[in-house]
Amino acid sequence: MHGQLYDQALDGEQCWIRRGDGSMRHLPVYSWLGGARASRCDSRFDETIVNLCSGPTLDLGCGPGRLVAGVVRRGLPALGVDLSRTAVELARSSGAPVLCRDLFAPLPGTGRWHTVLLADGNVGLGGDPWRVLQRAGELLGRGGRCLVEFDTAAEGVDAAWVRLESVRSIGPWFRWATVGLDCAARLAGDVGLTVTATHPVGTRVIAALEAA
Q1: The whole model's pTM is what?
Q2: What's any GO biological process attached to this entry (predicted)?
């Protein structure tokens, strides 16, 4: 059901995410979709992370594919991966090549990608950033790097049960983590990566992780 609510949010329904402690926030759908309705900070973030990409680029949890489309416009080969069929359809309609697949499933080019993207909090997928970063490292080729967005408003790893809600529906609880920039170096080191640079963009930040 949380996949269904996510799809409905992409189609324009007002949805929010509730944590187990009761706190809530609206899903940042305009940020995910990009374009004219995104904030100035979000547009600058997209431009920055796309310009940091080099060589064949893989976007994990790409959503509607705005970053994949941006990388393709730069003339680089790129591929997105997402489990939402609605997101994949939106991405493909914009010309972004995207697979409807779990990022932990077999993927093309494993061990050969120059750049792997983890934006929009996707480092916290499943509540286990170690597993997500380990997977990103497996996908990288020699000399490649992972560009990861960390949370500038969080500290450490805060893994929690969350669920998606709308006026009409309530989804099941699932695990998610917010991952603060303060623990980026430790997390990277735990999975054999090293933080080599950070790129602040307004209230957001991108860290470049390379094989240690």
Answers
A1: 0.94
A2: methylation
